[in-house]
Amino acid sequence: MSQPITERVEDPDGKRASGRRKIDWAREHMPIVAALREEFEAEQPLAGETIGMAMHVEATTAVLTEALAAGGAEVAITGCNPLSTHDDVSVALDANDLITSYAERGVEDEAYYGAIDAVLSHEPTITIDDGADLVFRVHEEYPELIDSIVGGCEETTTGVHRLRSMDDDGALEYPMFAVNDTPMKRLFDNVHGTGEASLVSIELTTNLSIAGKTVVVGGFGQCGKGVAMKARGMNADVIVTEVEPRQALAAHMEGFRVMPMVEAASEGDIFVTTTGNRDVITRDAFENMQDGAVLSNAGHFDVEIDLETLEDMAENTFEARDGVRGYELPDGRQLNVLAEGRLVNLASPVAEGHPVEVMDQSFAIQAVSAREMVENGEEYGAGVHNVPDELDKEVAEIKLDAEGVEIDELSPEQREYMDSWQHGT
User: Fold this and answer.
1) Does the annotation list 256 as a binding residue?
2) Residue 300 counted as an annotated binding residue
3) Residue 223 annotated as lining a ligand binding site
4) Which listed residue, of 120, 178, 284, 290, carries a Cα 20 to 30 Å from 213's Cα?
5) Is 196 assigned to a binding site?
6) Is the domain defined by 192-347 classed in CATH 1.20.1250.20?
7) In the chain, what is the straight-line distance between the N-terminal and C-terminal CA atoms, in Å?
8) What is the assigned CATH class of domain 5-185+354-403?
9) Mean of the per-residue pLDDT values of the chain
10) Over 70: is that where the pLDDT of 6 sits?
11) What is the pTM of this model?
């Protein structure tokens, strides 16, 4: 069984202070979660609940975690990616009497799943996931916990896809909110968060410019669209690859070049996968790539770039730069993989994740969704559920208020007109 992070790191006090500074900075720039925290502290909607979390443990996640604890919950948390944890943030979280953190950066698979098991030893009544590893672990290894779990929330596109497949097979045995699919998450976090954070991390990790390069984006979902738009805004030539005809057409109508990955490979300088699927960049593409090509992933798991095949193809591999693995091929070309093919915006040594303001919106949805599960969980059967629209609007209204933005309201006559089928042309 894993131990809390404070029992496994040197100089916990020094790390705690560093983590505290990061959390406090993020909290100052997260007005939605801050407003919800005040409400939670006053009303204690999560009192008596135990929340198990598997998330990217960095400063913005910590702000959410502390808000949930302020609402009365006991919280146990670990990472959802072996390279995305900030150890100092984990230590600072663990200093809270209501929070136990098992997250640690750079662990191997056994320790990674051991930490998930440690979270589940707290017998959570609510689960909050990023990638669905926690909910899968419950079903596969701890089915006895299912009866006491009220429900859960899933943050990501990949996790929601996995849960919907599980639901289709009749294997999901408690209700889960698809937080990723709600507008306040999908339209801001996926587009602007992934777009900005991925390209910033690529630049910082490589110290190379985006401008003037050809950037190949694998997939044109919301995340891929964000990367493509931001890269174009940074004066890159952008190529999109797709398998879904409507998404490919959308990219074409947005003015991007669209072609198969094997063709794009010969033109690309920088590659960014965003699909949530495996084998997006494979041998045929590697064989066509230019010397010095940079490969990165902004999807979820480290399966989008076929690293096993690339390793087999390479005569030599070496650390070209901190966070950059060079693969030297027999013909002398060098291909460079960032962050071991994991999420470049979180797993790169210099990565900070999505901008704080973007995560404020996404994590506010997590907070109100957890509250909804506690207050009205009996209304939701086992399976994947959309976040109620009024909760999404609640978060948007708090954000507008924090930004000092006022909007119009429908008059009674307008509302009646919109709700009626009896008004003709």
Assistant:
1) no
2) yes
3) yes
4) 284
5) no
6) no
7) 68
8) alpha beta
9) 94
10) no
11) 0.84
